[in-house]
Design goal:
The complex is a heterodimer of chains A (about 190) and B (about 575). With about 190 residues, chain A is mainly alpha-helical. Chain A is about 45% helix and about 10% strand. Chain A is built from 7 helices and 6 strands; from the N terminus they run H-H-E-E-H-E-E-H-H-H-E-E-H. The longest helix of chain A has 30 residues. Chain A is elongated and about 80 Å long. Chain A starts with a helix and ends with a helix. By secondary structure, chain B is mainly α. Helices cover about 65% and strands about 5% of the residues of chain B. Chain B has a domain of about 250 residues. In chain B, helix 3 runs antiparallel to helix 6, helix 6 crosses helix 7 and helix 10 crosses helix 12. The two termini of chain B are about 30 Å apart. Chain B has 19 helices and 5 strands. The chains are: A mainly alpha (about 190), B mainly alpha (about 575).
Chain lengths: ~190, ~575
């Protein structure tokens, strides 16, 4: 068993290298060069953190744009317990849930056409900060009416919040719901 | 397929294949002990100090048995240490959330999972593992298990390249050099790129922010705050992507915005999944002295992946017919990705979700950026089927290519049978010993997967964890054992697998499929190294030509399809027909 000594010792040395030195070096550089990103991309208002630009929050009231349904428990958008619904496409629970959401959204948006799919499907993380531009424009009239604003003004605000693909190529166009709603409240 | 989807996928493969040659050449230099343009001068002292501290005689090479023994010893030591680390994490530092000890069965499963480069996760990261366990336990294994896989591959390549040789390298040297000159530099650069995109990297405790609009929990109690789980994430995610590990920091893996914040971070993460497996094909060609051999293998892998990726994409983009009937708009347009968005994030849409699903299961990575359990039946069939090719389509770092080279030997053997000649590969005669070992490698995986699936669908503890009824439930169990039995680690995550039944059976499956494959592979390496070179004659089958690529693809697909088609028919295919019929 003369190989036992190298086996144990090399495991220890590699643990120090990859488990301590490497993450400490990454943390050191990250905190020095990208402090905002490395600490959760917090949105700070008046010296106080009011949320993270990367993590969605639950919105259900008429005065706000709604994000995607969230499957986290015990409450939606629980950022300490990320989770998807994991419901399969033929699962009756999925169909029932979507049916209920469709009814609720229809009632709040009379006269609108088919609902953009991301508004009635849960995200993979349960924390998706984004909705599609289609889903944001869908809600413009409701939010405008609840706030007594002109729909055109709200529409312009949404347009300002549409993020395109990276270099027009990578990813998908999207709207950050929390940032949009914080802007509405301003 | 939309024009943008096509462009994104083309861009991905162009960048991947363009990087295969430079990185592959670099890795060949690392394993051949050549100079490394200055990096060896900086890290050389660390390397030599490691050998001195650990009593490694770097100049001494091992025969295949010695090499396999060292691999096993290293794996046993790391398995035991990781098990103990989880059991006592409540007494160790760097645990600001004061998370308690992990249960014995879950600790065993996770230790087996990370030692075998599987990274199946029965637990939810942010609610189970302390910072120390994540960083100095799990992330260490992300490096170690990847490096061990690459070491076995390099030993196998030496077996092919050498003649009349007894030895195939020194495991400790290969392990150390892989860490120092390949994995650590790549991971450091990638981690910082990911942080720049918004991935967190901190040791402070979880952050609390107020909610703009209060909500309430399941019991009706008001909730006014949100706790943001943070931690040393980027350092772990970089190696998890590069080392085909896949074990994420958070429960939902790279779907979590802190683990994959932007489309650009997603591009780098999904590129990293196939980066080293693709480049190793070039390393292989370089080390056997004929780069065409490496390109031929890489071509076969790519040609199997592309049509399956297209199938996955089109099934998901078509969406769920049941939602159409409810008045939901699933059409792709300029202002929405459309398609089956259940379990997917808006910033990735259908294109980047399915690109990830296909690459992560082609490689034995197993990280996810969307929930495979919520895929349409055919969309979910693709990742399942890709794993069932014994993880040889790119596969794990090292393990994927040696698995593929075993299929090459089988293909050469079949070709030899057809024309009645003794088969040979790269000038080495393939004889009955090699074929016996290769058969072991090819047959053990389906046996493990199908046997455990069969047990799980008839015993109550196996059925208890199901989240979805009917055919989809069967798919969940088949997916779980396919994933563990191929060291992938992704899941149809609705299955509640953190139970003694799944933890123990899965742990056994993972250990078998890793070491039962690695040891016969090394045995073949030892046997090939001893052989002399047969000069190529007019009857030699050229193994770099398109004809052989087709033969290799046929062999891999046929073995995978024949073995698993009955099981696939019971799961995703039945569900697909049910979905089309509109029944549940």
């Amino acid at each position: 068993m003369r190989e036992l000594r190298p086996a144990i010792l090399i495991f220890l040395v590699l643990t120090v290298l990859t488990g301590l030195i490497y993450p400490l070096v990454v943390t050191g550089i990250a905190q020095a060069v990208f402090p905002r990103q490395a600490n959760g991309s917090l949105i700070v208002k008046g010296g106080l953190a009011v949320g993270s630009a990367l993590i969605g929050q639950p919105f259900a009231g008429p005065r706000y744009f709604w994000g995607r349904p969230s499957a986290t428990s015990p409450f939606p958008y629980d950022a300490a317990n990320s989770s998807g619904s994991n419901l399969g496409p033929t699962n009756p629970d999925l169909i029932q849930r979507v049916k209920a959401d469709v009814g609720r959204i229809r009632a709040a948006h009379p006269g609108k056409g088919p609902i953009p799919v991301d508004l009635v499907t849960t995200s993979a993380s349960g924390l998706d900060p984004h909705i599609s531009p289609a889903a944001a424009f869908y809600q413009v009239e409701r939010v405008a009416a609840a706030r007594g604003l002109a729909p055109a003004a709200v529409c312009q605000l949404v347009e300002r919040h549409v993020e395109g693909r990276w270099l027009g190529l990578i990813g998908e166009p999207r709207v950050n719901v929390l940032e949009l709603n914080l802007d509405l409240d301003r | 397929m939309t024009a943008n989807a096509l462009l994104q996928i083309i861009l991905y493969f162009v960048v991947l294949l363009a990087l295969a040659k430079p990185l592959g050449a670099w890795m060949a230099r690392v394993y051949e002990g050549k100079s490394l343009f200055g990096l060896d001068r900086i890290l050389g002292p660390v390397e030599r100090l490691t050998y001195r501290l650990c009593g490694v005689r770097a100049g001494e090479e091992m025969d295949w048995k010695g090499y396999a023994f060292a691999l096993l010893l290293f794996s046993v030591v790391s398995l035991i240490v990781l098990y103990l680390q989880q059991r006592v994490q409540q007494w160790l530092p760097l645990n600001p959330q004061q998370l308690g000890a992990v249960t014995p069965d879950s600790s065993f499963n996770t230790a087996a999972s990370f030692t075998t480069n599987t990274n199946w996760q029965g637990y939810g990261g942010e609610s189970t593992m302390s910072y120390l366990t994540q960083m100095a336990g799990l992330a260490v294994h992300n490096f170690g298990s990847a490096a061990a896989g690459m070491a076995v591959l390099v030993a196998f390549i030496r077996g092919l390249a050498r003649r009349n040789a007894k030895t195939i390298g020194n495991f400790w040297v290969d392990l150390t050099r892989t860490h120092l000159y390949i994995l650590l530099p790549l991971a450091l650069v990638l981690a910082l790129v990911l942080v720049s995109q918004g991935m967190v990297q901190t040791f402070s405790s979880y952050k609390t922010v107020p909610l703009v609009e209060a909500t309430h929990d399941a019991g009706g109690k008001p909730v006014t705050e949100q706790v943001l789980a943070v931690g040393p994430v980027a350092s772990q995610i970089a190696i998890k992507q590069l080392g085909t590990n896949g074990g994420g920091y958070y429960n939902v893996n790279s779907a979590h915005p802190f683990e994959n914040p932007t489309p650009l971070s997603n591009f780098f993460e999904v590129l990293s999944i196939l980066l080293i497996p693709a480049a190793l094909c070039y390393t292989f060609g370089r080390m056997v002295g004929d780069t065409r051999q490496g390109w031929a293998v890489l071509a076969a892998m790519t040609l199997i992946l592309l049509p399956l990726l297209a199938l996955c994409y089109s099934a998901e983009q078509r969406g769920n017919p049941a939602l159409d009937r409810l008045g939901v708009d699933q059409q792709s347009s300029a202002s929405q990705p459309g398609g089956n968005m259940e379990g997917k994030e808006v910033r990735y849409g259908i294109t980047n979700s399915t690109l990830w699903a296909a690459t992560t299961t082609a490689a034995s990575n197993g990280s996810v950026n969307s929930m495979h359990d919520s895929y349409t039946p055919l969309g979910g069939l693709v990742p399942l089927f890709l794993m069932q090719f014994s993880e040889t389509i790119f596969g794990g770092v090292g393990s994927g290519l040696y698995g593929m080279l075993i299929f090459v030997i089988v293909a050469v053997f079949i070709a030899g049978l057809m024309v009645g000649r003794t088969p040979e590969y790269l000038g080495k005669k393939i004889e009955s010993y090699e074929i016996k070992m290769a058969s072991l490698v090819v047959l053990i995986m389906p046996l493990i997967v199908l046997l455990f699936t069969a047990i799980a669908v008839v015993v109550p503890p196996g059925l208890k964890g199901l989240a979805n009824p009917g055919a989809h439930g069967f798919s969940e169990i088949l997916y779980a054992f396919t994933s563990m039995g191929n060291n992938n680690g992704s899941a149809f995550a609705g299955l509640s697998a953190n139970t003694p039944f799944y933890n123990v059976t899965g742990g056994i499956a993972m250990l078998f499929s890793r070491f039962w494959l690695a040891i016969p592979t090394l045995a073949i390496a030892g046997s090939l190294a001893k052989k002399k070179l047969v000069p190529a004659g007019p009857g030699t089958l050229p193994t770099h030509a398109p004809l052989f690529v087709v033969l290799l693809i046929g062999t891999v697909v046929l073995v995978g399809a024949l073995t698993f088609f009955p099981a696939l028919a019971l799961g995703p295919i039945v569900e697909h027909l049910q979905m089309l019929a509109g029944g549940n």
